[in-house]
Design goal:
By secondary structure, this protein is of the alpha/beta class. Helices cover 33% and strands 17% of the residues.
Length: 519
């Protein structure tokens, strides 16, 4: 009887289940699946939380955190404690490994025991130059270095990828050094050249030489021309005991956008203080491995300096000169700042008409040495009775406009050139520019430097009229305006030494005080 009752209950339950609607069956299955998903999610959360706590509170992570806090409190000490390791442990990662995080190891074999002396006035003897060159181009490029190098007063080296045979007269040039092998570093930029790695380490190798009484390291290319006296004058503004990074960006917006607006371009010159060079010497090789995709040397150096938190101190006298063609527009409108350097001098037309590129550069540097502070600085004069404007760029050109041109227009660079990429549009350049005059009667008559010398305490420059393709048109179409200048062939400019603060405008009080003193 009991068995019959159980069978009846089972049959009743089966009949009840079979009578359930399909919607209720799907709802029950959905609730079961949702519960299972929730269980899996909770278990995954518990596992991930456990893993995170084990990582955070592990001994390795705690040691790294304490090291970081110690470095943060003393940014210039870099006193990172490390367990004794073999030098091979400092080898770079293999190409398949991912780059490590920035670190500042204390490498004893990179230490320079020669500390900079900050006593006494800065001179060129406190500067070490590192000139990047190529053994294939050195025979030609050394003549450019010879134009500005002073063998008896200056210290520095030309760094090449391989040894070259010495020639007669090379004793008046910087000593040749062969860069270290860079094959262990990765370079993955598809458009650049691995020589950028070698050149980026010139600062490191110069620092390792341990030369005494060094305050500044100056980096440049073998086609860079430096105005050494103005370089020293500019560096006197800075404290060599601090970490300082000085230079200038490119004239091209495209170049600055690709690299960085806060980067000192190497062709225009890069200045590194001794403390910054010391800090870089401890991290640079490891830093280079973190940036295999960068293009050249100056962007790699900038990346490592950025890791140290040192900003760029921009000086307007450093000129990368990423331009081609006629450089007249830049040379005749130099900013109110000491002229320090130019680059790519072989890529532009000769500065002075009728001369070769090298002959022009010899005249250019001769004028630069006669009066370094006044070189390329501009004076604007007016003859209101004859409606003439004179724009004098000392050591280069005198422009005579047959009409009145206001200073605000003259301070803009006339676009006689194109950027390194061939673009000559106004928006391509990172400086104020203006279009050349289209009217022949508005174009200036140009008088280029012929000779320059000293006259006692003053400088006398002789400028000669240039023959241009517009001379005949001027005679025909601009007769009234050009009649006064028709027979003028030479202009002489007498310049006096600039004051120490020549670039500062005196205040109204100073002017009134001067007038009252004279009364």
């Amino acid at each position: 009887m009991l068995g019959v009752m159980k069978a009846t209950k089972v049959m009743a339950y089966q009949d009840k289940s079979s009578n359930m609607s399909p919607r209720r069956i799907r709802g029950r299955q959905w609730r079961h699946s949702r519960t299972g998903t929730a269980v899996v999610a909770v278990l995954a959360l518990l596992l991930s939380t456990t893993a995170w706590f084990s990582l955070v509170f592990s001994g390795t992570t705690a040691r790294c955190w304490h090291r970081f806090k110690d470095w943060e409190r003393r940014p210039q000490a870099f006193s990172w404690s490390r367990r004794p390791q073999d030098r091979s442990s400092y080898m770079l990662h293999s190409p398949t490994s991912s780059p490590s995080a920035p670190s500042v190891p204390d490498l004893p074999f990179l230490t320079n025991t020669s500390l900079p002396s900050t006593g006494g006035e800065l001179s060129v003897k406190h500067i070490v130059f590192g000139i990047a060159g190529s053994s294939h181009l050195w025979k030609r490029r050394k003549e450019l270095v010879r134009l500005w190098w002073r063998p008896k007063d200056m210290r520095g080296h030309v760094w090449l990828e391989e040894r070259v045979s010495p020639e007669e007269g090379d004793d008046s040039l910087p000593a040749i050094m062969v860069s270290e092998d860079i094959s262990r570093f990765r370079y993955t930029n598809p458009t650049g050249h691995p020589s950028g790695l070698r050149i980026s380490r010139i600062l490191l190798e110069s620092f390792r030489l341990g030369l005494p009484d060094v305050r500044w390291f100056v980096l440049g290319d073998d086609d860079t021309i430096f105005n050494v006296d103005n370089l020293v004058a500019v560096l006197k503004k800075y404290d060599p005991s601090e970490m300082v990074y000085i230079g200038g960006p490119s004239e091209s917006h495209s170049a600055n956008t690709y690299f960085s607006y806060s980067m000192a371009f190497g062709g225009g010159g890069i200045v590194i203080s001794h403390p910054l060079a010391e800090a870089l010497s401890k991290i640079q090789d490891g830093c280079l491995e973190r940036y295999p995709k960068l293009y050249g040397s100056d962007d790699r150096l900038h990346a490592c300096i950025t890791e140290l938190g040192v900003p760029l101190a921009r000086e307007y006298g450093f000129h990368q000169w990423d331009i081609k063609g006629n450089a007249h527009g830049l040379l005749s409108s130099h900013p109110i700042a000491p002229f320090v350097s130019i680059h790519h001098v072989e890529a532009v037309d000769p500065f002075y008409p009728g001369l070769s590129s090298m002959e022009s550069l010899k005249r250019f540097t001769r004028a630069m040495k006669v009066d370094p502070a006044s070189f390329l600085q501009r004076s604007i004069c007016y003859d209101h009775n004859r409606h003439l404007t004179f724009s004098v760029s000392f050591g280069y050109v005198v422009q005579v406009f047959p009409h009145i041109v206001l200073p605000r227009e003259l301070e803009r660079s006339e676009r006689t050139y194109s950027a390194w990429n061939g673009i000559s549009l106004r928006n391509e350049f990172d400086l104020d520019t203006r279009d050349p005059y289209r009217s022949v009667c508005k174009k200036p008559i140009l008088f280029y430097l012929k000779d320059v010398g000293r006259e006692g305490n003053a400088t006398l420059g002789s400028y000669e009229r240039a023959r241009g393709k517009y001379d005949l048109k001027r005679k025909v179409f601009c007769f009234p305006q050009m009649q006064l200048l028709r027979y003028v062939q030479h202009i002489e400019v007498l310049g006096y030494p600039l004051g120490k603060n020549w670039h500062l405008v005196c205040s109204t009080e100073d002017v009134l005080q001067t007038k009252s003193d004279k009364q």
